[in-house]
């Protein structure tokens, strides 16, 4: 598939039948947890505007820590290629993290009375640590395509959920205290990050043997599972694998 064909995707054509074959395969493999993720309490209540503030604050603090590691993964990805276009994309993702997404977190946290020092020193939950440790290990030890697959779940899940929430709760979104969160992720501009990743993964995977393709599918599914657990642990406000282990 050519760059032009993939890059023509907009938010209206992000359905599964419009993505190229290997992306379809990955997405179908993760479908059960993907759909359960959209229906879990954190996402439902966020869309309804009824999510408790302390649960959202827990999520934001964990996500702030996650984004720092996510930026490192993209920095490491840039060392796995000499392609200036790929390197520029990795640098742009890092810029977006520090200039856009982190600023939204800071704005929300200020409203909750959370200081910058608290944000920088928040304890990472076991579930968030499992997620970031996984993608960092892949970034350090695996080829570029593995890294692209490892970061795709975050980009694609957020774009999909953001757009679906915007459609489903369109009549009440203006009064939703989490409107700015939905607004950030529902846009075609955000979706284009997934388009870029899907395009490059598709081309890099085209000539790989079946064994390697299955490895990539497994990486993708694990990422989607980690996205689910990230929100689930935020809803339960758990730092440890079991609530009685929290300290």
Overview of the molecule:
- This protein has 247 residues and is mainly α.
- Helices cover 74% and strands 0% of the residues.
- The chain has 12 helices and no strands.
- The chain has helices spanning 3-7, 21-29, 31-39, 41-48, 53-78, 84-111, 116-121, 126-141, 144-168, 179-185, 188-205, 210-236.
- The longest helix has 28 residues, at 84-111.
- Mean pLDDT is 89; it is low at 1-8.
What is the terminal separation in angstroms?
51 Å
Low-confidence blocks of residues: 1-8
Number of helices: 12
How helix-rich are the residues, as a percent range? over 70%
- Overall shape: it is globular
Q: Report the radius of gyration as a whole number of Å.
A: 18 Å
The overall pLDDT, averaged over residues, is: 89
Helix-strand pattern: HHHHHHHHHHHH
Estimate what percentage of residues fall within beta strands.
under 5%
Main pleated sheet: none
Give the number of DSSP strands. 0
Structural class: mainly alpha
């Amino acid at each position: 598939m050519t760059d032009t064909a993939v890059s023509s995707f907009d938010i209206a054509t992000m359905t599964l039948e419009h993505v190229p074959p290997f992306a379809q395969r990955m997405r179908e493999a993760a479908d059960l947890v993907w759909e359960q993720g959209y229906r879990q309490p954190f996402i439902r209540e966020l869309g309804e505007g009824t999510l408790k503030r302390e649960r959202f604050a827990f999520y934001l603090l964990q996500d702030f820590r996650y984004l720092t590691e996510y930026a490192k993964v993209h920095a490491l990805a840039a060392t796995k290629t000499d392609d200036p276009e790929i390197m520029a994309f990795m640098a742009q993702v890092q810029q977006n993290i520090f200039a856009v997404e982190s600023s939204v977190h800071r704005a929300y946290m200020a409203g909750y009375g959370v200081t910058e020092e608290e944000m920088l020193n928040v304890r990472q939950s076991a579930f968030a640590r499992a997620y970031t440790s996984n993608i960092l290990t892949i970034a350090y030890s695996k080829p570029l395509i593995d890294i692209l697959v490892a970061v795709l779940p975050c980009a694609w899940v957020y774009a999909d959920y953001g757009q679906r929430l915007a459609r489903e709760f369109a009549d009440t979104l203006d009064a939703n205290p989490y409107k700015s969160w939905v607004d950030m992720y529902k846009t075609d501009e955000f979706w284009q990050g997934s388009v870029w990743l899907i395009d490059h993964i598709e081309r890099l995977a085209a000539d790989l043997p079946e064994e390697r393709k299955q490895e990539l599918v497994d990486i993708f599914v694990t990422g989607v599972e980690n996205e689910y657990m990230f929100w689930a642990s935020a809803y339960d406000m758990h730092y440890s694998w079991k609530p009685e282990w929290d300290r």
